[in-house]
Amino acid sequence: MLKLTPLNAKHHEAHAKLVDFSGWEMPIHYGSQIEEHHTVRRDAGMFDVSHMLAVDIKGEGVRAFLRRLVANNVDKLQTTGRALYTCMLHEGGGVIDDLIVYFVSESWFRLVVNAGCADKDLAWMSEQCEKFAPGLVITPRRDLAMVAVQGPQAATKLWAAMPGTRELAEAMKPFHAVVVGEMFVARTGYTGEDGFEIMVPNKAAPFFWQALLEAGVQPCGLGARDTLRLEAGMNLYGQDMDEGVTPFDAGLAWTVDLASERDFIGRDALLRLPRSRQLVGLKLLGRGVLRAHQSVFSAQGEGEITSGGFSPTLNGSIALARVPVGVRIGDTVEVDIRGKLSQAAVVKYPFVRNGKALVVSG
Amino acid sequence: MSIPADLKYTKSHEWVRLEADGNVTVGITHHAQELLGDMVFVENPTVGRQLSAGEECAVVESVKAASDVYAPIAGEVVSANGDLEGAPESINQDPYAAWMFKVKPAQASDLDALMDAGAYTAHVESEAH
Does B12-107+116-127 carry CATH code 3.40.190.10? Predict the structure, then answer.
């Protein structure tokens, strides 16, 4: 039996094509994935991301606990509402999950974790909490729905849908959140565009969704979410990294703080393990489509595409690939596409940001 | 779902139209494009290639996945629709107008083995369960 979000009826109403995503019945698209992708780059789209889980950690000493629990340093969070992207590692340095930590107060931090990882994350956090901070209370917030409103017109259309939020939204800096009554509004996202991720009580979610529809926000499915995040060069857990991969193998060195003396879980392994692999961007030069798990051949050895697909913005195929250290931007590599070798250029990613292509297309 | 009555069909969701000159035109069905989603890439067989029935001979790739297209009957490829290269989305817009390639059948009678619209409708319904 698939789990349903509070917005499930709205998706059926809109004749979405629904699929099983990590045990949840979720919309893959509402007609055309490519149209939805362009709408987010040019206007505003919304995604039901209620399958993701908000987890509140409350009590005295939350910050100290999180200093140990995650690889990025929560001491970077000094202003109320500030958000931090981080990986949560096991002792061996592999990635249990990637998540966002919001600093609400010294006695309340909120984490948002992936749907497919939610159960193991909760088990892991509880285990660590018992060991290091038994006084803290960890609460999974399945009572909250989550909607991502993304695109250059996201702010304007959000104001229209929620009277009274204009000043709020205008005052909000990127990567910050505010608590508004029962709502939690964050200026974050997974598309490379301006936008918001808004948590509302389950019961209010269909009304909120309807108000956004009436404000002209296009419902978008997980299909467009995937091509948008790929263009934005953002990792997808389970594809670009997992428990067998360190943040260094996954292009996430920028999220690991080794500068401080802080002893976080996985630190020793990260210092000990050789760094032999890296994540790079690929742009296909030949014909076809790059896909996950295709083999990549470089002068430095073999690698693998972790995420690949068609980029609607660039009108060509792009990928993230894990390749040996030594492969450089500007190199040409070969990719095995269905038994034929095609050339691809190693490029810097993100490929697209704020509606603009950062990689030459064609 | 659109399944024109005047076409023949395969289990692997190609449609086949017998032309006045005896050649057959091949494409993928409305149902096939709906399953695959937005098309982003088409690779057709080269003209002159000899196909055996059921052979993988073309590829369509959507945003979701790559999918093989199979030769509905044996014969020689006499034409390939080059327009699809720059406009793969035309398969989504009108799958029965956006033909992929034309084959000169080795034997005209091979067409009789293909499904008519009624049989194909039943086939699609059976796959849905």
Answer: no
In chain B, positions 47-66, which contact chain A (CB-CB < 8 Å)?
Answer: 59, 61, 63-66
Tell me, yes or no, whether A282 lies in a domain: yes
Any domain includes A270: no
Q: Are residues A281 and A210 in the same domain?
A: no
Q: Which residues contact B117 (CB under 8 A, 6 or more apart)?
A: B3, B4, B5, B6, B7, B9
Q: A295: domain range?
A: 276-357
Domain annotation covers residue A62: no
- Alpha carbon distance A294, A292 (integer Å): 6
Is residue A129 included in any domain, yes or no? no
Q: ipTM score of the complex?
A: 0.89
Chain A 187-226, CB below 8 Å of chain B: which residues? Answer: 223
Mean pLDDT, rounded, for A144-159 = 96
Of B38, B41, B65, nearest to A34 by CB-CB distance is B38
Q: Please report how the helices A62-69 and A118-132 are oriented relative to each other, as an axis angle in degrees rounded to 10.
A: 120
Residue boundaries of the structural domains of chain B? 12-107+116-127
Res A20: pLDDT: 96
Residues A138 and A56: beta-carbon distance below 8 Å: yes
Contact B37 A28 (CB under 8 A): yes
Side chain identity, residue A174: P
